[in-house]
Amino acid sequence: MKDKITGMEQEALAAVAACSDLKLLEEIRVRFLGRKGLLTDILRGLATVSAEERPAVGQAANLVKESITAVIDARKALLESALEDKQAVEEAYDWTLPGRCVPQGHMHVINQVAREIIEIFGQIGFQVAQGPDVETEYYNFDALNTPSDHPARDSHDTFLVKPGVVLRTHTSPVQIRVMEQVKPPVAVIIPGRVYRVDYDATHSPMFFQVEGLLVDEGVTFADLKGTLMHFIHTFFGPHTQVRFRPHFFPFTEPSAEVDILWTADDRHGGGTKSRWLEVLGCGMVHPEVFKNVGYDYEKYSGFAFGFGVDRMAMVRHGISSISHVYENDLRFVEQF
Ligand code: PHE
To answer: Which pLDDT tens digit goes with each residue over 137-151?
Structure first.
């Protein structure tokens, strides 16, 4: 009887050790320890064992039951954790997925163009200067020789913050701020936002300008022209045709507007189409402006110019509406 029990134990231990599947392991448990299993069979045979031997055989059977149970439990734990690991790996990684890319931004087209402009003037000695967006009427108009009855001061053009304070309508007030701070020679380039009550395909209520100012002894209109030609030929290409047209600004005398002959692909006709495009305003600094900042206008002369960065960007990239530039639709922004 005892041999039978030992033999069954050996068999069970070997079967468990060889088992690598949870379902199979359960079958083994049922086969050896189940209610109709081999151990139950053996215990049923206890009736045939003599009364003296019975306790010892019964004890041996119990020990075997415990040892088989322990081995099965240990095996079960091992197989379960192996299965969990396998599942975790399978669920965590889909090896066929492409890598996840982090979307990368870049500089806005307006900033790209503004930096390019600053870079071109930087190379010929202009330094960057800046001033506030919220400006007093004095800096935005009066100091720039713009009398209070000038059309530019009409409330239709100017955002009024409170009496005497406006959103600057151009970057020219920074000319005054710079000249109040430093004595000639001055050569500055002034990028910044400006604001006007105006909104259509070519006008936005907020847009970007770059202003230039150069003051020294003996500066002439030829210097102004040479500087702007250099800029236009660098920015738009060396063969760009340029036209200076007489104009009026209260703070420059004489004043001019500058056009370039811009050739674009003709979308309908197939060939190319050229037209004159106004790109900037400029002139010689008005003596009244020098007076307002305490510069000796007998000794010094200078020139100033200003243009819309958006206009430069639109011409350069063939952008049809200024609203694209400021709506920040990614389908547009990502093209630059
Ligand atoms: N401030 C003018 C404008 O906004 C441009 C300009 C600047 C003209 C400097 C002459 C000199 O229209």
So the answer is: 999 999 999 988 887
CA of 230 to the centre of ligand 1 (A): 19
Q: Report the side by side order of strands in the sheet with 272-285.
A: 127-128, 186-195, 206-217, 300-308, 272-285, 252-265, 242-249
Residue of 139, 145, 172, 194 with the most ligand 1 atoms within 8 Å of its CB, for mutation: 172
Which tens digit of pLDDT belongs to each residue from 180-235?
999 999 999 999 999 998 887 777 899 999 999 999 999 999 999 999 999 999 99
Collapsing DSSP to helix, strand or coil, 240 comes out as: coil
**In the chain, what are the domain boundaries?**
2-90, 109-333
Separation of CA 249 and ligand 1 centre (Å): 7
Q: Is 175 in the pocket of ligand 1 (CB under 6 A)?
A: no
CATH superfamily of 109-333: Bira Bifunctional Protein; Domain 2 (3.30.930.10)
**Whose alpha carbon is nearest atom 2 of ligand 1?**
306
Is residue 249 within 6 Å of ligand 1 at its C-beta? Answer: yes
Helices (H) and strands (E) in the chain, counts: 12, 10
